[in-house]
Amino acid sequence: MRLIWNKQPVKALKAMQPKRAAKIRADMAAIAEDPLKNRRNVETIVGTDNGYRLRVGDLRVVYRIDNDTVHVVLIKSRGKVYKR
Fold first, then answer.
1. Angle 7-15/18-33 helices, nearest 10 degrees?
2. Residue 71 to residue 2: CA distance in whole angstroms
3. What residues contact residue 28 under an 8 Å CB cut-off, 6+ apart?
């Protein structure tokens, strides 16, 4: 599957520590290879058909799966990611 990063996640990765950013990139690459595999740190987002979140420490990576593409939508801290 293809992995597409929106503007906000790219900006967030550039602002964080390189080691943490590399961990998030590696996790998302693994998800893109097999998005439906059961993973311990991945849960579906309630109220969406294809929305998921990946837990990486105190950060949450929100992504969605559309046909053959994984779209990384948002990276924020645990307390801010679900607020609208």
1. 140
2. 8
3. 3, 54, 61, 63, 70, 72
Q: Which domains are seen in the chain, by residue range? A: 2-77 (3.30.2310.20)
Q: How far is CA 63 from the centre of its chain?
A: 5
pLDDT at position 48 is: 84
Residues 56-73 pLDDT 10s: 999 999 999 998 999 999
Give residues with Cβ within 8 angstroms of 36, minimum separation 6: none
Enter the pTM of the model: 0.90
- At 39, is the secondary structure helix, strand, or coil? coil
Helices (H), the chain: 7-15, 18-33
